[in-house]
């Protein structure tokens, strides 16, 4: 690792990664490699997580291809040195912002979208002109192998290299003086990364998790609401950082809404063959402990790593399922009488990564969106906020630090170097010593 780090440093200092042509070409190479290896990526996702071809293509491969196209379209303008305004008293001066690569970056990935969640930040790191070391998740070994193969065949290891392994490997990587660490994973591990990085003052992006609330008030369109929640929750078997963690439904529509939810589930999943599996037996055991059979109104059959979607009703904050992020196919339903109640409770909780509000009442929507703090979200939808590269994605507080996607990815892997350029033709002595009374009077007129 140290040897790779040193040779990547050498390569970075050649300045090669900084040109537009180089960055553009590397994105091209990445795109072709993803296309060429598409079948193997899909197979690996099936082996590790039983992801259907459709889900895997939409959320892991197509997503990445579209993203590269977007970056290639905008890269030139993002890279430009921008001339900005200068205060009038700074005579004969121009001011500039020049994005420069952070340098050597480390990307650490999770298991749930094991391909997309290392390749999407990689696109940003390439676009910003960095060298990269990637540590994919050890819980999806087939996907990690195909990532390693693609990177090895496509890029020189002095530029981008995959390092595989578990905690020990991560710990060794965290000893290296990277210029940026981009981590996606759990809040607990995020804390470890932050602590390690702090010792060397390495800037971090932490894309973490949490319990994302989904509020359904009595004015919501029940059918559409049910479809969009079921989709967002059971996509990837609930192993999505921004999945609706739980539903808060207004008591007046609870029964009607639960009926529509159950109808929708059976429409969407006539059988559960196509569903993604839970990543490991350990996670299945963790999820089993969250189920309170008395509250289950749907599902619960568990075969190996496949869990039939579970809906639990009349759940309260005291239930096991409400203690931590669920990250699996269990959907608890809580109820509220007034929006005030929901707001008060959410103010006591950690700021979530995502929040969803289903309502047709503009006042209610406005209230929730202005009073509750959260990373990102949607009105009358779930998940779709991540699809739009024009909006930055990331958490707040315990759900994360920093944002990426689209231009935000370019910015997160760049340092915005800023400077002024002062003409030498005229050099008024006003600010220079000796400081006379006359100069002081004049400066007080200007700086007020
Ligand atoms: P995780 O935190 O267990 O693992 C993520 C990475 O950290 C892995 O590569 C792993 O090897 C490494 N790691 C684990 N323990 C470590 C330690 N002690 N020291 C150093 N490195 C260590 O996360 P996971 O289980 O793979 O993913 C699920 C979590 O990730 C959920 O909480 C989910 O919400 C979150 N997540 C967030 C986003 C986002 O974009 N915000 C996306 C996907 C997942």
Plain-language structure description:
With 448 residues, the chain is of the alpha/beta class. It is built from 15 helices and 18 strands. The strands form four sheets. The protein has a seven-stranded mixed β-sheet. Strands 5-4-3-6-7-17 form a six-stranded mixed β-sheet, with helices on both faces. A three-stranded antiparallel β-sheet has the order 1-2-18. Strand 4, helix 6 (141-154) and strand 5 form a beta-alpha-beta unit. The protein is globular. The model has no long low-confidence stretch (mean pLDDT 97). The structure holds nicotinamide-adenine-dinucleotide.
Please describe the biggest sheet, giving its number of strands, its sense, and whether it closes into a barrel. 7 strands, mixed
Instruction: State the end-to-end CA separation.
Output: 54 Å
Based on Cα principal axes, name the global outline. globular
* Helix count from the secondary structure assignment: 15
Overall mean pLDDT score? 97
Report low-confidence residues grouped into runs of 5 or more. none
DSSP strand count: 18
SS content category: alpha/beta
- In order across it, which strands form the biggest sheet? 10-13-14-9-8-15-16
Bound molecules: nicotinamide-adenine-dinucleotide
């Amino acid at each position: 690792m140290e040897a790779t780090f040193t040779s990547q440093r050498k390569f970075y200092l050649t300045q090669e990664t900084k040109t537009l042509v180089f960055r553009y070409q590397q994105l091209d190479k990445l795109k072709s490699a993803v296309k060429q290896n598409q079948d193997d990526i899909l197979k690996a996702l099936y082996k590790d997580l039983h992801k259907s071809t459709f889900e895997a293509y939409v959320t892991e491969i197509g997503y990445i291809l579209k993203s590269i196209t977007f970056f290639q379209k905008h890269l030139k303008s993002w890279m430009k040195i921008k001339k900005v305004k200068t205060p009038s008293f700074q005579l004969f001066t121009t001011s500039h912002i020049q994005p420069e690569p952070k340098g050597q970056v480390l990307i650490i990935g999770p298991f749930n979208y094991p391909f997309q969640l290392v390749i999407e930040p990689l696109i940003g790191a390439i676009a910003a002109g960095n060298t990269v070391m990637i540590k994919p998740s050890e819980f999806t070994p087939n996907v990690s192998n195909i990532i390693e193969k693609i990177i090895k065949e496509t890029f020189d290891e002095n530029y981008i290299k995959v390092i595989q392994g578990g905690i020990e490997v991560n710990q060794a990587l965290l000893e290296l003086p990277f210029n940026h660490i981009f981590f996606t994973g759990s809040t607990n591990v995020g804390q470890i990364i932050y602590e390690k990085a702090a010792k060397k003052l390495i800037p971090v992006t932490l894309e973490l998790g949490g319990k994302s609330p989904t509020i359904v008030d009595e004015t919501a369109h029940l059918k559409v609401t049910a479809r969009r929640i079921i989709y967002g929750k059971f996509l990837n078997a609930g192993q999505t950082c921004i999945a609706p963690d739980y539903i808060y439904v207004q008591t007046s529509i609870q029964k009607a809404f639960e009926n529509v939810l159950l109808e929708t589930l059976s429409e969407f999943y006539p059988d559960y063959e196509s569903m993604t599996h839970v990543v490991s037996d350990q996670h299945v055991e963790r999820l089993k402990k969250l189920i309170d059979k008395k509250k289950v109104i749907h599902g619960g059959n568990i075969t190996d790593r496949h869990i039939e979607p579970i809906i639990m009703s009349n759940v309260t904050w005291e239930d096991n399922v409400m203690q931590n992020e669920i990250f699996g196919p269990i959907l608890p339903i809580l109820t509220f009488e007034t929006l005030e109640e929901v707001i008060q409770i959410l103010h006591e909780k950690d700021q979530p990564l995502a929040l969803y509000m289903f309502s047709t009442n503009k006042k209610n929507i406005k209230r929730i969106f202005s009073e509750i703090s959260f990373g990102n979200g949607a009105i009358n939808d779930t998940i779709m906020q991540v699809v739009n590269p024009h909006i930055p994605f990331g958490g707040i507080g315990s759900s994360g630090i920093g944002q990426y996607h689209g231009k935000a990815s370019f910015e997160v892997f760049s340092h915005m170097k800023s400077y002024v350029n002062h003409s030498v033709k005229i050099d008024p002595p006003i600010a220079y010593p000796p400081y006379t009374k006359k100069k002081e009077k004049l400066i007080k007129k200007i700086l007020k």
